[in-house]
Write a structure and sequence with these properties.
Blueprint lengths: L18 H11 L11 E5 L6 H12 L5 E5 L6 H12 L12 H10 L7 H10 L2 H4 L5 H8 L9 H4 L1 H11 L2 H13 L8 H14 L2 H25 L6 E6 L4 H19 L7 E7 L5 H4 L3 E2 L19 E5 L5 H8 L8 H12 L3 H13 L34 H9 L18 H9 L7 H11 L5 H10 L3 E3 L5 E4 L1 H12 L2 H14 L6 H9 L8 H16 L3 H12 L11 H9 L7 H15 L10 H12 L7 H16 L3
Parallel strand pairs: 1-4, 1-6, 2-3, 3-4, 5-6
Antiparallel strand pairs: 7-8
Length: 665
């Protein structure tokens, strides 16, 4: 699945926050003679919808008529051979003023691998390699490869692999008699110096190909990668070209996509050690899973201009990989320009709301900004996620399709961000009863720090067979969760945290059992804040008893705190609890309904209203217009009457007064 491109291959892409990456690739493509060092593999890593595909859109739009370039989606590639064949066919498209590459070495290997033996053995094999296309067509297995390779290419290029005769003709012309000797000599030199001829090498490669083992697949794939690079190297030596060749790979973290990149880099290392001239292929690969730091290096941020500026000196060591972490969109620089609605009073306010809701996730911001702009009455801030998607004919062209008729906006976002985990009903809704992995991730994400021991205890309480380690791994492998060096959970992405919290809230009984079990698990005195965090999550207008427990704890902590700052830390930890309450009215009125009216001279009431106001203010979807900032500031000021070192409370009140003033009107 691509991460933000329309059905097909749109040439219009939003690349906000990605300009540094585009500039890096543009610089690496510029060709001033033979490159001084091997070109890198540029790896763009981000979660689904993180903007990698839009970078490929931009690069494809800018260079598809200016350089030899090909774009592939390798999510479903069945072999390295499929990827190489698709790349060869994509590079063979005609570009005005730019000579094509014939790929004689690569073509000869493909022709050898596609030999369909009728019992004639080695003799028939060599005859097949020398046969004309029309004679070889009846004895080839290339048809299957052509059908597998075609879907990787953009639709307007798939014609190259649809006609078997045309494909065989291209291979035959690439290995004409004039070039046959050079190709066979290169094949003979590839591998150990054991006296094998070029035909011997090809026969051995076909034998390995027939074994269907991991080792044989790697050996065949590596030889194809070596041939691919050698062909581009030779072609660029024969013709002066302004730019290097460009290979764009989407979903390159697939098993075969990852192997292809590994083999390509291995071939480059060997060529460099043999002092061969660098090849001319610049690879830009998008992956939606963690970068292998030991192999590729530690990723740099996509907005880090200093780290993305490469040293081009004569003695610069090769950089085999340039791993780049696609950062989220910045509020002012990126999200504000994407918003042209003013449902909250201005485009800046709408952008502030969307940024807080999504954490700056590019695709989510783009989709929600479209809905607020095009249908603000139907998709207001408090109905933005729960309403069904608009009719398909009203979608912007860049939106990926959804087959459902009743898919809600939040279901759409879940399907876009966690597609491999979801069972979907025929009408497009996510099946509430058939997604145990999604349920497990939601329960794990319900507790601060995603504590797996506590989560395991909750699974036992619920009677589930889910595994907390597996749930965390799913989040980590999708780049939604940052882990520390020892495997502990770090930052959970705000968008997935929002979607998982709302998924759990759809099931009231599971929500209550989950937070009840967490509260029971955190029974030690040092876990009091966590215990009351989950107790607060149980509060609803029809179930206020947990609120009494929480407020009692906060009052006791206020009395025993050595400093007011210590109590504010406890207050923050408790009131960051999730909630499943909703209102269509003013959030300030809801606080009064739940916590009572404000009263001067009543410390407990000030603590109660402050805690409930902060709890609900923490949920941006509940309070999109920041109405509760006023209530929080008021209660901080009232509470200051009862606290000796109250300056810190006035400071906190001032923070919320500024928010209140920014959002007035």
């Amino acid at each position: 699945m691509t991460d933000g491109v329309a059905h097909g291959w749109t040439r219009k892409a939003v690349t906000r926050g990605r300009e540094q990456v585009v500039g890096l690739v543009r610089d690496e493509l510029d060709r001033g003679g033979v490159p001084r060092r091997p070109l890198p593999v540029v790896v763009l890593a981000g979660p689904l919808g993180g903007g990698g595909t839009t970078v490929l859109d931009k690069l494809w739009t800018e260079f598809f008529e200016k350089s030899l370039s090909v774009r592939l989606d390798v999510a479903d590639a069945q072999s390295v051979e499929d990827i190489v064949l698709a790349a060869v066919q994509g590079w063979r498209r005609r570009i005005s003023g730019i000579p094509r590459i014939d790929f004689p070495r690569t073509s000869m290997i493909f022709k050898a691998l596609s030999f369909d033996d009728d019992g004639s053995g080695r003799e028939g094999f060599e005859a097949y390699l020398q046969a004309r296309p029309q004679d070889a067509a009846v004895r080839t297995a290339l048809r299957d490869w052509a059908h597998r390779a075609a879907p990787m290419l953009p639709p307007d290029q798939q014609v190259f692999t649809e006609t078997l005769a045309e494909l065989l003709g291209a291979l035959q012309s690439a290995v004409s008699r004039r070039r046959n000797k050079d190709v066979l000599r290169w094949l003979a030199d590839y591998g150990p110096p054991d006296g094998s001829s070029g035909y011997d090498r090809l026969w051995e490669q076909r034998r390995l190909h027939q074994q269907h083992t991991d080792g044989s697949a790697r050996a065949v794939g590596k030889m194809l990668c070596a041939a691919l690079l050698a062909d581009t190297r030779a072609a660029f030596q024969r013709h002066d070209r302004l730019r290097n060749a460009l290979l764009l790979l989407d979903n390159a973290d697939s098993v075969k996509g990852d192997l292809f990149l590994d083999l390509l880099t291995e071939c480059r290392r060997e060529s460099h050690s043999e002092r061969a001239e660098p090849d001319a292929v610049l690879v830009v690969a998008v992956r939606h899973s963690p970068v292998h730091a030991a192999r590729m290096g530690v990723p740099v941020a996509s907005d880090d201009a200093r780290q993305l500026s490469l040293d081009r000196g004569e003695n610069t060591a090769p950089r085999w990989w340039i791993p780049i972490r696609l950062t989220d969109l910045a509020k002012s620089d990126d999200v504000v320009p994407m918003c042209s609605s003013s449902v909250l009073g201005s485009d800046y306010r709408d952008a502030d709301f969307l940024h807080d809701l999504t954490g700056g996730h590019p695709e989510a911001v783009d989709r929600l900004a479209d809905l607020l702009r095009d249908a603000p009455a139907a998709y207001g801030p408090r109905t933005l996620l729960t309403e069904p998607l608009p009719p398909r004919h009203n979608w912007p062209s860049r939106w990926p399709p959804d087959d459902g008729t009743d898919t809600t906006v939040e279901d759409y976002l879940l399907k876009r961000t966690l597609p491999q985990d979801l069972a979907v009903l025929p009408d497009g809704r996510i099946d509430p009863e058939a997604n145990p992995d999604l349920d497990a991730m939601a329960v794990l994400a319900a507790t601060p720090g995603l504590r797996r021991g506590a989560c395991t205890a909750v699974f036992h309480f619920l009677g589930w067979t889910a595994n907390a380690n597996a749930a965390q791994l799913r989040l980590t492998s999708g780049l939604w969760l940052d882990e520390t060096a020892d495997g502990a959970a770090g930052r959970l992405h705000p968008l997935i945290a929002l979607l998982l919290r709302r998924w759990l809230a759809r099931k009231p009984e599971v929500w209550r059992d989950t937070h009840t079990a967490y509260a029971a698990h955190y029974s030690r005195p040092q876990d009091a804040s966590l215990r009351h965090h989950h107790t607060l999550a149980l509060v609803e207008p029809s179930h206020r008893e947990p609120m009494t427990t929480v407020i009692g704890h906060l009052e006791r902590e206020l009395d025993r705190a050595a400093a007011t700052e210590d109590w504010l830390t406890v207050l923050g930890a408790v009131t960051e609890a999730p909630n499943r309450v909703r209102t269509t009215g003013d959030p300030r009125s809801f606080v009064t309904t739940l916590a009572g009216v404000a009263e001067s001279g009543d410390r407990r009431q000030s603590v109660t209203r402050l805690a409930i106001s902060r709890w609900l203010f923490h949920d941006r979807y509940f309070d999109p217009a920041r109405r509760l900032a006023q209530s929080i500031a008021n209660e901080y000021e009232r509470l200051a009457e009862y606290v000796p070192d109250n300056e810190v409370l006035f400071t906190e009140a001032g923070k919320y007064r500024r928010i209140e003033n920014e959002w007035k009107g």
